[in-house]
Amino acid sequence: MRSEASRSETSRHCARCGSKLARDNAAPVCSPCRRVPKNHQEAGPRFGDEFWAEDRLRQALAGKDMGAVVRAYRVHPAHGRKPLPQADVAKWLSITQSQLSRIESGRNRVRELDQLRHYARRLRIPPELLWFDAGDSADEPVPPKHAAVVLPGGPPVPAANVRTEPALAESLLMTLKQYITTDNLVGPRSVLPVAAEQASFANGLLAQSQGHSHRSLLYVAARFAEFTGWLDQDAGKLQEAMAWSNTALDLAHEAEDAHLASYIHMRKSNIASDAHKPALTINFAQAALRSSETLSPRLKAVALRQEAHGHAMAGDYEGCSRAIDRAFRYAADEPDDESDIARYCTPSYVEMEAAHCWVELGKPVKALATLQQGIANWHADFRRDLGLGLARLAVAHAVADQPEEAVAVARHSLTIATDTRSHRTARQLRRTSQLLADAGAHDQASQLSRTLRTTLA
Q1: Is 134 exposed, middle or buried (0-12, 13-18, 19+ CB in 10 A)?
Q2: Cα(419)–Cα(194) distance, integer angstroms
Q3: Could you tell me the pTM of the whole model?
Q4: Which tens digits make up the pLDDT trace of 202-239?
């Protein structure tokens, strides 16, 4: 007769449903579970305690990293010799396969509580194993499949089967235009929360779309991710800005949209320049130009002005000048497409960006006239950027040893920065104060510094 220990060692249960396994079944799951397609459902299957006790999965949960948890879940021995396909798990989580890949690799961290709860529910992780409040433990409702509506006394009405993705994509793009207008006027503070929410909403739609509608939604999701990255950048959150830009770039590649991918590479270059990383700024700008034969002239111009910024930060006057000259030539071409994402990169825009480069290179006199003329002709709809332009002009005056002019211009910029809370503008104003102090204009520097502390605190 076998001992209790012996019986315990030979008694095995299905890692999915928990039922007792047959003696001749060497697999970790029972026959009924093996016959169920892994990707047929809206959420992961229910697993028993043995599944969640697996060492790698336990370590991932203890590490409080949802990306590691999802990865350990997919490669769990209970699934057999092959891991669960990323595409299947991505559908359960209502994200794309490329997004799941970034999450598992650690490039994108899942930090928002709502997202953590959503992933935990879709994977059916026991609440007691989580490092956060799981909220309502009930499963999330699964949206019903499209079905015809049957009216009393009448035939079925097929309206419920009509796909709404094309109209929804267009509606979301109109919403994005409104957000961009608001951002131009008052900065990122009021727009950032809703833009991030819309970006997540657009991502969630991708799992249910297909064909041409899927590609349209990929474009929309990429645009919202890029814009949210821009808002984070202007708010001074550069790490978050780069994460959103990485998301946007993956979506643009998935949509096979070379123009949008180029633009997002340029945006990554812009974030790198804000982080004062010249080599990375140049590398991202050159990546934006790799398929230059297919890009619009304005797209080339906006990438080249970023390359110029990188050279300016590196102190390379010749490299900066060459990039600026090329940017001018391309910006002079009128865009053929009204929807060109870089159509704002006009010759006057490049001229203002070039002036900023001249200041970086220690040639403020060359920049002053350009900055003054550009600000005089500034469009009222771009108020936040007017504040940045004024702050750059204040820096130029400070570098040119014109302290009174620097303080006067900085005050005008500060009026706008108080409303917009643009981190980029605030950084230039603080730089102005430091430059004045370094030049010996201590009274003006102290006055500006004190005003900045009280106004932008």
Answers
A1: middle
A2: 18
A3: 0.66
A4: 888 887 777 777 888 999 999 999 999 999 999 999 99
